[in-house]
């Protein structure tokens, strides 16, 4: 009987530990979008190893792109534009992840028709010319894309997905191929390993992670002075373009009218942040003006 009681106690403790590991449900009190604390599941994927793997992959990607002549030069107007927008957004990131203040932020532009962008762990941002050119993005829409991708990194969604797949022997396994599968990196711009992404894991962000990235991304871009209504215009453009030719971005970032409606439902929280950044009131904000697809 005593042994049975001890066994029951052990099972109870194990269950409690598992529940505690999943996430801390205590709410974060703040203005703007309210998001729960980071999932505790991510601790199963060591931060140092994940960040180092991302650093190596990003460095390799930039190096190979430069060799192939598909890395935008420092004087490229679109690269300068991206970096100006990033400089405004980055100061708003620490409220969502204090570690972001220590990240070695990088922004690069790759000449590729792929309609996609990404932000790897540690603040390593990449845009493809395809997403800027084919969607004819305004600055506000670029900020919406950038905010969304940064939000995935801030909320450590990639690290959490790795943890949930029970990847414990990270080292070589969390290399270019795996990160390509998570972040939607164009395999043509990375090493041979990235071409085998499908043989490792095809990790897509869940609906909840996408929703969080949408809202957190628009929160930080709104605080930086970019119109959150651009997020709605952005995804409508993507949906329109996707009808004519399937877009790669939808393989890692599921689309749908539901996410647009969710953004619309949160404009009452997001627009005040934007208005405050512009030193005005919501009532005085002009209507959002997008641009037509090319």
Question: How would you explain this protein's 3D organization?
Answer:
This protein has about 290 residues and is mainly alpha-helical. It has one domain (about 40-285). It has helices at about 1-20, 45-70, 75-90, 130-135, 140-155, 155-165, 170-175, 175-185, 195-200, 205-225, 230-245, 250, 255-265, 265-275; strands at about 105-110, 115-120, 125-130. It has a three-stranded mixed sheet, sandwiched between helices. A hairpin with a 3-residue loop joins strand 2 and strand 3. Helix 3 packs across helix 5 (about 140-155), helix 5 (about 140-155) packs across helix 11 and helix 10 (about 205-225) runs parallel beside helix 14 (about 265-275). The longest helix has 22 residues, at about 45-70. Mean pLDDT is about 80; it is low at about 1-30, about 165-175 and about 190-205. Belongs to the peptidase M48 family.
Strand arrangement in the largest pleated sheet: 1-3-2
- The tally of helices reads 14
Structural class: mainly alpha
Query: Strand tally, please?
Result: 3
What is the average of the pLDDT values?
Answer: 78
Q: Indicate the percent of residues in helices.
A: 40-55%
Q: Based on the structure, what is the oligomeric state of the protein chains?
A: single chain
Main sheet specs: 3 strands, mixed
Percentage of residues in strands: under 5%
InterPro entries: Mito/Outer_Membr_Metalloprot, Peptidase_M48
GO biological process, one term: proteolysis involved in protein catabolic process
Pfam family, one: Peptidase_M48
Protein name: Peptidase M48
């Amino acid at each position: 009987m005593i042994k049975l009681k001890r066994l029951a106690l052990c099972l109870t403790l194990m269950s409690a530990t598992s529940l505690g590991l999943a996430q801390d449900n205590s709410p974060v009190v703040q203005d703007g979008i309210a998001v729960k604390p980071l999932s505790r599941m991510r601790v199963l994927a060591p931060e140092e190893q994940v960040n180092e793997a991302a650093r190596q992959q990003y460095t390799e990607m930039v190096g190979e792109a430069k060799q192939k002549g598909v890395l935008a030069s420092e004087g490229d107007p679109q690269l300068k534009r991206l970096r100006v927008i990033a400089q405004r957004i980055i100061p708003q990131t620490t409220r969502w992840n204090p570690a972001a203040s220590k990240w070695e932020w990088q922004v690069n532009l790759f000449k590729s028709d792929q309609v996609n962008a990404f932000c790897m762990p540690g603040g390593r941002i990449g845009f493809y010319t395809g997403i800027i050119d084919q969607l004819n993005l305004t600055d506000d829409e670029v900020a919406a894309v950038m905010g969304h991708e940064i939000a995935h990194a801030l909320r450590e969604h990639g690290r959490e997905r790795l943890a949930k797949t029970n990847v414990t022997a990270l080292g070589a396994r969390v290399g270019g191929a795996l990160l390509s599968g998570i972040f939607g990196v164009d395999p043509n711009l990375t090493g041979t390993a990235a071409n085998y992404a499908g043989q490792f894991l095809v990790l897509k962000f869940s609906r909840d992670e996408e929703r969080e990235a949408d809202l957190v991304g628009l929160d930080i871009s709104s605080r930086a002075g970019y119109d959150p209504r651009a997020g709605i215009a952005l995804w409508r453009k993507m949906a329109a373009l996707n009808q004519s030719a399937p877009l790669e971005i939808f393989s890692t970032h599921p689309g749908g009218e539901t996410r647009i409606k969710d953004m619309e439902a949160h404009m009452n929280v997001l627009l005040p942040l934007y208005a405050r950044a512009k030193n005005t009131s919501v009532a005085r904000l002009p209507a959002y003006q997008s641009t037509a697809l090319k």
